[in-house]
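for the recovery benchmark. C-alpha cells below, seq after
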C-alpha cells in the first residue's frame, strides 16, 4: 500500500473538481419546458418580422 495515500489525495482532488464544475442542466422539467417555449415564441416573432420585411411590410397576405 505504498500508493494508498496518493490515490486518496487524487480522489479527493477529483471530487472537489467535479463538485465545483457547473452541471449541464440545472433546470427542472417544467422550467426547461417554459424556457424552451419562451425561446420558441421569440423566434416566431423574429421570423414573422423577417417575413413581413421580406414581403414589403404586409403580413396580411400569409395565413
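predicted aa per position
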Amino acid at each position: 500500500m505504498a500508493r494508498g495515500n496518493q490515490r486518496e489525495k487524487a480522489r479527493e482532488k477529483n471530487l472537489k473538481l467535479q463538485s465545483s464544475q457547473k452541471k449541464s442542466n440545472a433546470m427542472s422539467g417544467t422550467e426547461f419546458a417554459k424556457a424552451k417555449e419562451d425561446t420558441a415564441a421569440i423566434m416566431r416573432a423574429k421570423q414573422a418580422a423577417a417575413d413581413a420585411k421580406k414581403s414589403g411590410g404586409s403580413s396580411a397576405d400569409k395565413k
